[in-house]
């Protein structure tokens, strides 16, 4: 796999890594909620002193530690999606504006017709993966 193919696969890799990190954050928030409800006094005092840096819901009253304001947390969580949109937009505009059919040494080898369709499908799947990740995180933070 060369640089051209890696560039074309970057949005998919970004969405998969984001999905993994969001699922990890979701599980951490879930574990924290469970321990706050059912934990012993020691565990609850430990949780009051420790905080998640990115917690999209408002932290409990009395929790010490530093967390981002919920609006800032959502802004941090939206950065990968903005990067995804920019990268897909640049790749697609490059594919559809630079002709490669007659070029002896095309700048972007991955832009042949079959690959365009394949990558368009992959980018669609990646968009769905981002949407799924945000929906899961929103459900958990409510």
**Class of secondary structure makeup:** mainly alpha
For the biggest sheet, the summary is: none
Tally of separate domains: 1
Order of helices and strands: HHHH
Question: What fraction of the residues are assigned to beta strands by DSSP?
Answer: under 5%
Range of helix content:
over 70%
Number of helices: 4
Give me the count of strands: 0
Oligomer: single chain
Mean pLDDT figure:
77
Q: Radius of gyration over alpha carbons? A: 21 Å
Shape: elongated
Give the low-confidence spans. Answer: none
Distance between the first and last residues' Cα? 42 Å
Task: Report a brief summary of the structure.
The chain has 142 residues and is mainly alpha-helical. The chain contains four helices and no strands.
Write structural notes for this entry.
With 142 residues, this protein is mostly helical. It has one domain (3-141). The chain is 72% helix and 0% strand. It is elongated. The model has no long low-confidence stretch (mean pLDDT 77).
């Amino acid at each position: 796999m060369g640089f051209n193919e890696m560039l074309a696969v970057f949005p998919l890799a970004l969405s998969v890594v984001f999905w993994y990190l969001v699922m990890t954050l979701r599980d951490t928030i879930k574990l924290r909620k469970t321990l706050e409800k059912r934990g012993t006094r020691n565990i609850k005092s430990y949780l009051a002193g420790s905080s998640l840096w990115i917690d999209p819901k408002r932290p409990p009253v009395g929790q010490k530690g530093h967390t981002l304001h919920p609006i800032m947390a959502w802004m941090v969580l939206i950065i990968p999606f903005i990067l995804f949109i920019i990268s897909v937009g640049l790749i697609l505009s490059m594919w559809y504006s630079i002709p490669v059919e007659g070029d002896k040494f095309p700048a972007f080898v991955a832009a042949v017709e079959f690959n365009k369709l394949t990558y368009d499908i992959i980018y669609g799947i990646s968009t769905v993966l981002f949407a799924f990740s945000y929906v899961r995180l929103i459900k958990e933070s409510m």
